[in-house]
Design a protein that fits this description.
single chain, about 130 residues, alpha+beta, Alpha-Beta Plaits, 4 helices, 6 strands, about 30% strand
Length: about 130
């Protein structure tokens, strides 16, 4: 069995193939304690993310449902637009939900290659269709 490809090499190959290959960082945040966090912690969390958004360090964020889609799970997905995995880890550690022990997180680099996050925007070929955007 061959060794896994280095992450940066994979990114270079993606770009050479015409993909966007933008690196962002996916933070899956999950509850440690049952029930909702205190309102002041939730407010601080939302304020923290809003501040990151203004600074350009937040790509996307939001809560996740239960597996059946029927209720709030207490988990969330945060996509950081950081310069490195270490910088993204510092952002995740700075979240009041994590600092105050209401959630734990896992963090991974994510290479954006395909998809259409906005109407008309195509990541797979770094294109924009103005008729649909």
């Amino acid at each position: 069995m061959s060794e896994p490809m280095a992450w940066d090499e994979y990114g270079a190959r993606c770009r050479a193939a015409g993909n966007l290959a933008m690196e962002v960082f996916a933070c899956l945040t999950t509850p440690i304690r049952p029930g909702p966090p205190p309102p002041d912690t939730l407010a601080a969390h939302k304020s923290y993310l809003a501040d990151l958004e203004i600074k350009g360090e937040l790509f996307l964020a939001g809560p996740l449902s239960s597996e059946d889609g029927a209720s709030m799970s207490g988990a969330g997905l945060i996509i950081f637009a950081a310069t490195s995995l270490a910088a993204a880890r510092a952002l995740a550690e700075g979240d009041p939900m994590h600092q105050q022990g209401f959630r734990r997180f896992t963090l991974q680099a994510w290479r954006l290659n395909e998809g259409s996050p906005l109407p008309g925007l195509r990541l797979s070929n770094r294109g924009f269709d103005i008729a649909h955007g």
